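URGENT: need a sanity check before tomorrow's submission.

F., can you look over the DUF262 domain-containing protein record below? I want to be sure the sequence and structure line up before it goes out.
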Amino acid sequence: MPTEAKDIFEATSKSLRELLSENGLGLYLPPYQRPYGWSKDKVEKLIDDTLHGLKHLGQSNDSFTFLGTVITIHDTNHVTIQPMVRNEVPAKVLTVIDGQQRLSSLILLTVSLHSQIRLRHWQLFKGKQPDQDDVALTFLHEQTLYLMKQLGSTFYETQPYGDSPLYPRLIRAFDDQWARKVPQAIYHSPIANLIFTYSKRVEDEAAAKVKPTDFRPKARDGVGEGEPDLVKRFAEMRTILVDLAKDKFREEVEGLPDLSVLAKNKQFQRALLNHELSDEVVEYLDGIEDGPAAELFRLVMLASYVLNRIALTVVKGKDEDYAFTIFESLNTTGEPLTAFETFRPRVVMAEGLAEYQDSVARKYMDGVAEYLSTFTVGDQLQNATRDLLISFALAETGSKLSKRLADQRAYMKDEFERHSKEPATREAFLSHFVNTANFISEAWAPNEQRQFPGLPANATTDSVRLCVAFFKKLNHSIVIAPMVRFYSEALAASPETKNEVIASLEAAMKAMAAFTVLWRASRRTTGNIDREYRDMMTGLNSLTGMGPLARTQKNSSGVGQAAPVVDVEALRAELRARLESAEHGDVKGESNWVTQASTVPLYTTSAPLTRFVLLAAYHDTVEDTAQPGLIRAGKEDSGPCLTYQGWADEAHLTVEHVAPQSNTGGWSQDFYAEKELVHRVGNLVLVPQAANSSLSYRPWAEKRILYAALGARSIEDARAALEEAALQKGITFQQSTEDLVHLSKHMPHLLSLGTKTEDWDPEFAARRSEQLLRLCYRRLMPWLGGTTP
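C-alpha cells as predicted:
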C-alpha cells in the first residue's frame, strides 16, 4: 500500500497536563539540541500570556493559552537514546526535535508553582488535616494536594521499585540516563538535575513530615552552557509567583484575577476547576483577608489554568528526517538547528561516549564549531553553515549540495556513515571537514589578515592574497573546494616536501585566477564556469585524463574508481584544455581571445573582473613612445601593479570611463551610436578615486591633461603640467592644483594617455582594447602553464 500522511506524522493538541503527565512518558533531548537559552523577557512573556488567558477565562470558557507546536519522534526502538539502561527506559520516549526551550521553561514553571504552593500549604496547615467541619479550608487543603500531585506528575514520575525510583520527565542525551538504581541513574544536565534535585527533596521532606524548604537552585561549577540561564529563569519565575500570590503589582505581567471573580463567577469556576464552588467556599472567599490562605487560593487558580489551559500541538514524526522536514515546513517558533548541529552527535556516537572527550575527532569538531560560533544564531549562522557544507561537499566528493537543510543533513549523515566504522577513514573525513572550515575562516576571510592555518606565514604570498581577494570580490566561491584540496595536501605534506607542496598551492591559485579571468572576460555571462570546476572535482568529462580533484567519490566503495589527483601541472593542463576546447571555453589562443574579449562590455559584465584585467595589462609596462596613448611591456619590476596592494588600493585605482557613459559634449558621437562601446576595456582606465570629481564629464582635451598629471613621473612634473594648462589654456579643475599633485603617482598607463593629442574616438579605443587585452593575456597565460608569443 502507498504511504499515507498519517503514517508519516500525526498532530494532536494537548493541554500541558495531558502532554507531560502521561504514565510512562519520557521526553528526550537529542545531543544536537542547543543549551537552554531563554531570556528574562521570554519568561515574562510566557507568564504574561498565561495570566492574560486566565483573566479572559472569566468572560469566555474557551480561553486557552496556545504556545505553538512541539515536534517529536516516538522513538519506539530507542535509536536516539545514548546512553541507556535498556530495560529501564520509560515505556514511551518522545525525542524532541523542536520545542525544547518552551518545554524546559514550562517545566520550570510547574516546578516553581509546585514549590510555592507546597510552602503555603504547610504555612497554612502545618502538615495537619483541617477540621472536617471547616468546608472551605478542607476544600482548599484537598484541592491543593490534588494540584500538587498533578503538578508533580508534569516533571517527574515515581517508578515502582529501585533505590533511585524518581524519573525526571525531561533529560538530555549523553548527560543523563534513566535508571532505577544508583549509580546508573545519571541526571547531570541542567534541566534533569534541577528536576531530580527538587523531586528528591519533595519526596524526602514528605516522608520525614518536616516543613518544606524554599527551593532556590544555584548553578554548579564546571557544568557548562545552559545552567546559569536556567537557574536565573527559575529564580525570576519564583519572584514573579511570590508577588502574584501576594497580589503585588508587577508592570511586566498582568495580575491574577481578583478572588472575588473566583467566588462569584460560576462559569469561571467550571472552566477552571471543572465544578462549581460550594456556598461555604464562596462565602469564605468573600470575606478572605490577605495571608497564607489568600495566597494559596491565588496560586491554585494559576496552577489549575497552567495545567489545563496552556495548550500545545504535538507533532509526532515517523523518524528524525521526517520530523526535521515537518519542522522546516511548519516554520514554527524557534530557530532551526543547522546541519552541523544535527551532525555532531553522530560523530560522538561513532567515537563512543567515553572515548570522544579525548579523541582527535573532538578536536576536529571543536575546530568547526569554533568557526561557526562567530556567527549569530539565525540567518547568519544558517548561511555560514550552508556555505561551509556546500564547499565541503564539493571538495569531499565533488557533490553539488543544495541549500536545503534536509539535503545538507542527509549528505553529512550518509557520507559520514560510510566512513564511521573505520577510525582512519572517519578521521580523514573529519580532518577534511575542519580544513575546509579553517580555510574559509582564515584564508577566505575578508580582511588583510588572510593566512593558511597550520602552514608557515610565508605560505600566504602576495600572489595568494591577490588571488583570494579577487575571488572573494568576484563572489567566486566555487574555487574554495579546489583550493581546499591543495591546502589539505600542504597540511599533510612531510617536512621534506612541505615547501614544494606549498608552492603548488600558490601555483594552483594563480592558475584558477587566470582561467577565471580569461574565461569570464571573453563572454558576457559566466558561461557556466562553475560547471567546469565541478567537473574537475568529480573527474567527469576530463579533457586530459586528469582524475577527480575531490578527496573521495560519493557513496562508493572506491573500487574501480579513479584515485584523486592533487597535482598543479595536471590542473593547469586541464584548465588550459577546457579554455581552448570548442565545447567549453572556445578560446583558441591569444588572437582569438583578444578578438572575443574586445567586444565584451567588460564594465557592465563585472567591476572586479574589469579591475583585474586592467591591473594585469598595466603590470610592468611603460609608455609606448611610438604610439601615443598606448603602453607596452617593460622590464620586470618596472611598474608592478598586479599585486595584492595594487588590488586592495581601490581608492587609488578605480575604474573610470575615458569617454563618459553619456555624452555631455566634446566627445565623438560615434561612441554613443552603440550603447556598449563606452563600456569596453579600451575606453576604461584606472584612476585615483579622489580625482573623479575633477575628471567628471570634461572633454578629452582637458581630461588628457589631468591624466598626464596624475600619472607623472614626479610631483614637479605633475605641478608643471597643471600650471601650464591653467596659464596657457585657462583650464582649471574642481580640486586645487596641490590636491591633484598629491594624488599623482607615476603610472605609465595614465601618462601615456596624456601624450595623445589627437581626438579620442572609437577607432583608437578599439586599438587600445586590443593592446590592453594582449598584455593581459600574456601576463596570465604563464599562470596556466601556457606559452605566449
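My own read: DSSP finds 33 helices and 14 strands in the chain. Residues 398 and 770 are 38 Å apart (CA to CA). If you see anything odd, call me.
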